[in-house]
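re: ur question from yesterday

yeah so i grabbed the chain u mentioned. its 778 aa long if i counted rite. heres the sequnce exactly as i have it in my notes:
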Amino acid sequence: MRGTSSAAAEPNVSPAAPRDLYLEVYINDVSTGLIGKFTQLADGTLVATVEELREVGLRATDSARTAEGLVRLDALPNVGVRIDEPTQRLFVTSTDEARVPRSIDAGGAGSTVDVKPQSSFGAVLNYSLLASTNSLVDQNVKLFQGLAGSYDARLFSPFGTISQSFTTNYSNSPWDRFTRLNTSWSYSDPESLITYRGGDLISGGLPWTRPVYLGGFQVQRNFALRPDLVTMPLPSFSGTAAVPSTVEIYSHNTRAYSGDLAPGPFRIDNLPVTAGAGEARVVLRDSLGQETVADLPFYASSRLLREGLLDFSTELGYPRRNFGIESDDYDGRLMGAATARYGLTDWLTLEGHVEGGTDLHNGGLGVAFPLGSFGVGSFAAAASEYNGETGSLINASLELQLERWSLFGRTQRTFGQYEDIGSITAIPNTGRNAPKSFHAGVPRTLDQVTLSVPTPFEASSLSLLFTNLEYANGDTSRIAGISYSQQLFERSTFFSTGFKDFGSHGGFGLFAGISVPLGGDISATTALDHGRNGTRLVTDVARSERLENGSVAWRLHSSEGTTPDRSVAVSYRAPVARMEVGVQQIGQGLRATGQLDGALVLAGGGVFASNRIDDAFAVVDVGAPNVEVLHQNRHVGKTDRHGRILVPGLNAYEPNTISIDPSNLPVDTDIASTTQVVVPADRSGVVADFGVDTSPSAALVRFVDGRGNPLEAGVQGHLLTGSGGEFVIGYDGEAYLRQLLAQNAVEIDRLDGTTCSARFEFQAVRGQQVVVEDVPCV
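ran it thru and got these structure tokens back, copy pasting raw so excuse formatting
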């Protein structure tokens, strides 16, 4: 049927000219809570834009559109409308087919804190120092063996972060070896979700490509800049509510969402689930208490991108070789690479990769797609040309999960002379200590299968794996393995792993044991290890280390076999560093070791010693000593004599709440707020200045009227002297005024509409809260 439009107050009168109406929309006698903009034409017909109708929940059809692109409401199929002008309401009768389902984002809109990422100026030096003696029982050698150190230094600013990592070694001579690791600059733009890097970097890649180290420049999509952004497709649910209802969503037996539903069709998007297979339960409960339950099996995977999302990485530079061994070993040929993934739909992700340079051309395409609610599949093909030789590659993978069974399979084949940047720029290590399984060329064959099998026993797992690898030089490895674990009494666990190599290298290994918690963060593990070097009985008793300052941990280790290996170590986590000392016996030798891990920070006008800082941090400046500081409501420490404290462990690009306890502040201090929310940039620091004024020109002033009665609470006043400012009168006529002078004048707006004036004197008293009593305002 087609609906008609009429005016409730004057049903037979049409307006002389078109007019705009703003009406509250009711659909099937239930308010949508929305006000729509409509136009009433000269003949009384209502029209609206397509976007306006979609917002209020009506589906526009092409047959109802006018030449101007508007939609006639009386031409919408299965829709009837009636205007009630006195109440400015539009009543719509409609079937579900004519309505746009109400969209509900069960995943939420992410953080609502509107704070842009920040970065101050500063520097951080992370260090790890390891000292060791020679044998303590051999009197013919010098006691000191040497000192090794690894370092990670960075300078950060609003313009990016410059990083430099390196290692040093010291023995009997001066610093005899310095090895540079990474030197790079990076800058991230949270608006575009792009990170720019220059210097040493790792190229982007896909499961069927091989990333390489380059010295050059990179432009890369970085979804980590938006922690609230879900990149993989999530399941959705559609339905219709006949009456007002509530909806609850359960995932992994935990309620993940709850909300109200108005009558009509609805669609729930972004069901909050985790990666892998599972089942979401949607429970609809109407106003009469009747329930409708729907179970939705799903499979979510990071291999897929949501529709419309683009992930990419582009690089240009010189391939780096012998990383960690040589400081400046770069191939002289300029190489480039580009990688992209695009969510064409929620069920199809496109992949592409190209790389090349001097005499090398390589490129390929791939797809990834869901397999219903059971898993994800992918397929890719690539080809290369190098010095006139051509080759190709195909790769396919499969992820499946059905109830307690799970399967991962991957197969890859190369044909001809398939080459990539890694294969043509790597220098084969042919030294005596070179690993036999290392080959720079792309493997000719790669097959991987992992199967998790349910067992008849509770709290147990059984996994089977097989890897078939044929290297570029023809060597093969065909490894079959099995692992099993079983939870026993008192949270103890039995575990075992075995493998057999049927390829060129041969080999067999078995590792089995039991782990028993002893309480108080102490656990014991004993295991039997059988491999190429014989059979060993390994026993460990350890107390795990906590992240809190003051944590003490220790470990006793014994490995009994052909060559005994025994050690004892104790560690302590202080506020300024982590320290560990130990003694180790290997065979007849005995040596002592010591390790120191920490960081030095220059930021916020001070120098701080801390444990390692690998992510973001804040320098909290309170302006007063001995003030307790909290991060996410967890105690961090107290400010030093300069009123500052370093707060490590902040999450980059996420809101971090930092607060202070004002109870230890002097009574005469002035503080604007006790809580701040900061969003630091990656690997940088921010200064959280709480603006505490320890010598404020402030006082508590009590205002009265001409009869001596306190002024009304809630009235507003204006400070006329000094820098001015507004204030509000509280209970008993009291107001807290800042930036006072020796002589002060104010005006106060009374509730009766009149204005009164007052004058008073002020004199600061160190260590006391100044109170000015009974100031008349007339």
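noticed a couple things. The chain has a mean pLDDT of 87. also The longest helix spans residues 50-56.
anyway ttyl
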